[in-house]
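Notebook B, p. 112. Complex prediction, attempt 2.
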Amino acid sequence: MKETPRWLTPAERDGWRGLTRMWERLSGRVARHLQSESSLSTAEYTVLVHLTDAPDGRRRTADLVGSLEWEKSRMSHQVSRMMKRGLVVREECPQDGRGAVVVITPAGRDAIAAAAPRHVEAVRRLFVDPLTPEQLRAFARIANRVLEQLDERPM
Amino acid sequence: MKETPRWLTPAERDGWRGLTRMWERLSGRVARHLQSESSLSTAEYTVLVHLTDAPDGRRRTADLVGSLEWEKSRMSHQVSRMMKRGLVVREECPQDGRGAVVVITPAGRDAIAAAAPRHVEAVRRLFVDPLTPEQLRAFARIANRVLEQLDERPM
DNA sequence: ATCCGATCGTTGACTTGTCACCTACATCCT
DNA sequence: AGGATGTAGGTGACAAGTCAACGATCGGAT
C-alpha cells in the first residue's frame, strides 16, 4: 500500500519541462553550429578548451575526467577518437606508471583557436544576451543550488 | 581581419557552465534512477507519458514528433526499440496511407504506472524542492525567453 | 486525370556515451 | 618482502541519436 505520490504542480512542471526543452534545443543548436562552422563536436571542443587551460597543453587523463565530470571510459574513447583526427596525442606519464597524459597538437591548437570565437558568439546570441544580467545571476545561483543538492544526496 | 571576439565575462561564463554542468549531472542522475528503479530509459518514459496523455493511448507518429520536438528518424528508431520490448505497437493509420499510429500496450501502461511516482519523486528531490517557488518561476521565465530566442533566430 | 511538391515514415551508416569488465600499477599495512 | 586494496586507464558490446537518402502517399494546381 503506497502513499499517493506528490505530483508536480503546473508551475513545477513548467520549470522541469522548461529545463529539458531548453537544453535539448539549445544544446542541439550550439552543437550543430560548432560542427558546421568549425568541424568540432561539443565534446572535442570541451576537451580542447581544458587542454589549452594548462600552460603546456598537457593534462593527466584523470585530471580531465575530474574537471569535466565525465566517466573515465568516455574520456578514453573520446581521446582515442581525437587522436585519430590528429587533435591530441597520448603520452606515458613519468610519475605514474598507470597514467597517461593527453597533449594537444598544433592542429588541435589551430582548431580551437578558429572555433572559439564563433562558438562564444553563438552561446552569447542564444543564451547570454537574451537574458538580463539579473536573470543570468539568478540562473547561476539556481544551477549551483541544484548542483549542491546533487552532491549532498547520496540518491 | 577579424574583430576581437566578445569573450564571456566571468558571470556569463558561470551562467553557461552552470547550465551545462547542471544538465549533465542532473539528467544523468535522473536517467540512472529511472533505469535502475523502473527499467525505463528517459526516452521511453517520455514517449509513454505522451501516449497516456491521449485518452485511448494512441497517437500519430508525427504528432509525437511535434510535441516532443524530436527528429522523426529518432522517433522511428525509438518506437522500433519499444516495440521489441513490448511497450508499444505500431498500427496503420486509416485516414492517411503514409501514416502510422503508435499505441501503448498493457505492459506499457504497467511500466509507466510503476515508474511515474518514483520518477516524479526524483525530479522533486533533485530539482524542484531545492529551489524556492520564486526561483522556479524565474527559471521558467528564463527557459521561455531562451526558447523564444531560438525560434526567432534563423541561426 | 496527372503532375509536382510537400509530408510521413523507415532504413542504414556512422558517432557518441554507458556499462561491465580487465590489466597494470600504486599504496598501505603487517 | 608480501599481500590486500584501491586507482588509472583501456576495451568491447551495446543503446541511443544524427544525417542523408529513400519509397510511399497526399494534395493542390493545371
